[in-house]
Amino acid sequence: MAADDILERFRKLRTWGSNGRRAPHKPLLALWAIGRCLAGQRRMAPFALVDRELARLLHTFGPRRKTTHTEVPFWRLHNDGVWQLDNPSVVTTTPSGDAHKSKLIDNNVRGGLLEDDYVAFQANPKIAWDVADMLIDAHFPQNYRDDILRATGLVSHTGELQRLGERGTEIRDERVEYELARRRKRHPAFRGAVLSAYSDQCAVCGLDIRLADAPIAVEAAHIHWFKDAGPSNVCNGLALCVLHHRLFDRGAFTVVADFRVIVAAQVDGTGFHDALGGFDRKRLRILPVRADLRPDRRHLSWHAKEVFRDPDAIRA
Ligand SMILES: [Zn+2]
């Protein structure tokens, strides 16, 4: 089976998010299944297992929602031509065509990658990495990549491909090449414009560590994710140090319309106060002088709704 054909089918996954609402359910399910494949686990998995594992992934990488519908991607993914269900005819569906969760569990319905794809991924892991990267690229900022690869078992905790086998060294070299190729990339104009609007300093903490006069620890973050069609304009950007960029992308804090930082109540740990807690409810330390370059409230409100982990903290 041609690698391009596989990639194309995964690229076309129909997600049901609309109006800027994130729905990473299908991509996360596909990534989890690919991780299992590369780890040499069984192709078909019972819904009860998928339910548990996908809920865990959605909790970590998905938007905050009142209920987690793992049954929807499990059921709908097979319409995308990348997923197979066994025994689906025993399951009753809702008026919108979705499976009842209890029926999936009671009937022990199993789902998994198509056999041909599963075999192709095992024979040539590079195809699997390409699909995984494409899915992550399409639905998440860069900051999520390593954590998602680990959480879905696509790389081990040491960063190496899970199933090396007798082709170990060869695959490891390929993996290094693959990583290098990825890094020749992206958004140089946006980065330059955002950094200069913020005088190369982190908007939150003011950090501007330089090496030979070049800023090395401050990055341009998209507020409304580029992956979600957020524009590469300075008013959709924040200059953030690597730590605050990561914390912002993961929803540990957000910024509200009056440019105050709001920290999620769930964040904790050694160094928390100095690194983040101390900035809670304070105004950003650095802002562009020109008002039209400052963060736009529509983009800030997208981040607060779709990424920030603690919406209650905004109202408090
Ligand atoms: Zn910072």
Describe, in plain words, how this protein is organized in 3D.
- With about 325 residues, this protein is mostly helical.
- The chain has 2 domains: about 180 residues, no CATH class; about 130 residues, no CATH class.
- The protein contains 14 helices and 9 strands.
- Strands 1-3-2 form a 3-stranded antiparallel sheet.
- α2 crosses α3 and α6 crosses α7.
- The longest helix has 16 residues.
- It is elongated and about 60 Å long.
- The chain starts with a helix and ends with a helix.
- About 5% of the residues have low confidence.
- The structure holds zinc ion.
- The site of zinc ion (ZN) has 8 residues, from β7 and α11.
- The site of zinc ion has 8 residues, from β7 and α11.
Question: Which helices and strands occur, and which strands form pairs?
Answer:
Layout: H1 3-11, H2 25-38, E1 45-46, H3 47-61, H4 71-76, E2 83-86, H5 101-106, E3 110-113, H6 115-123, H7 125-139, H8 145-151, H9 168-183, H10 188-197, E4 210-211, E5 214-215, E6 218-222, E7 237-241, H11 242-249, E8 253-255, E9 261-263, H12 272-275, H13 297-306, H14 311-315
Helix pairs in contact: 1-7, 2-3, 2-7, 6-7
Bound molecules: zinc ion (ZN).
The site of zinc ion (ZN) has 8 residues, from strand 7 and helix 11.
What's the short version?
The chain is mainly alpha-helical and about 325 residues long.
Descriptive terms for the model:
three-stranded antiparallel β-sheet; binds zinc ion; 9 strands; two-stranded antiparallel ribbon; mainly alpha; elongated; 2 domains; 316 residues
